[in-house]
Amino acid sequence: MTDPLLDLSRLEGVPSAVAAARAAADVVLRDRGARRVPAEVSARALLASARASAAMEGPEWDPGAVRLSTELIDLAEMIRSTPAQALARAHALLARGVVDDESLGRVPADDPTRLQGVLELLTAPTGAPALVVAAIAHAEVALLADTGGGHGVLARAVEHMVLVQSGVDPRAVLVVAEGHRAVGAAYAERLAAYATGTPTGVRDWILHCAQAVTHGAELSPLGGKRA
């Protein structure tokens, strides 16, 4: 059985970047088995990430991004087993007040095949690191439609859900979206390069996502490098 995500995880530079990102997350969550993280700390990190993500799309998405952040940990429990339901709920939270009520929970997709591919990607077994799964899911959701729909916010939330569900960030204390915002216009450029489907474009996107996790760890309210 083929495992395309595992193949992507072996692209040049990806293993070391993923290892570095995981190490940065583990520094924040040192002694994760015993360390208790107050709910308000997770809430503060999720709010910061939501605000950063919304700022990348436009102010109209801020209320929805904040709403979505309050359920992100619960949705993370569904994202690999029942992703269609998780995406529908996430879209309903995010898009309330921005799209018609009839459209809530219906993730717009220019190509329904791509949406089906996202669902299959999230449920398929793989030997790839969770960060690679999260990065590819992020890009695929972001590319479901050319404009509108808050796909960027939804995509970054899906990425974080995978990281939470997989145990990379089980307490949702990494401010990953800030890592995406920090690169400015390069975020869109790397996503466009991913969309070409070239090995270099895909590799560079995964490397960017790994760096976003590292940056998000540094900004964690648990103290990042100082933890």
Task: Write a brief caption for the model.
The protein is mainly α and 227 residues long. It has eleven helices and no strands.
Structural write-up:
The chain is mostly helical and 227 residues long. 63% of the residues lie in helices and 0% in strands. The chain has eleven helices and no strands. It has helices at 4-9, 14-28, 39-55, 62-76, 83-95, 112-123, 130-142, 151-166, 176-181, 186-195, 199-218. Helix 2 (14-28) packs parallel to helix 11 and helix 4 runs parallel beside helix 8. The longest helix is centred in the C-terminal third of the chain and has 20 residues, at 199-218. The chain is globular and about 45 Å long.
Please describe the topology of this protein.
Blueprint: H1 4-9, H2 14-28, H3 39-55, H4 62-76, H5 83-95, H6 112-123, H7 130-142, H8 151-166, H9 176-181, H10 186-195, H11 199-218
Helix pairs in contact: 2-11, 3-4, 4-5, 4-8, 5-8, 6-7, 7-8, 7-11, 10-11
Q: What is the number of helical segments per DSSP (H or I, 4+ residues)? A: 11
Low-confidence stretches: none
What is the strand content? Answer: under 5%
**Secondary-structure class:** mainly alpha
CATH class: Mainly Alpha
Approximate helicity band: 55-70%
Sheet having the most strands: none
Gross geometry: globular
Remind me, CATH topology? Fic-like fold
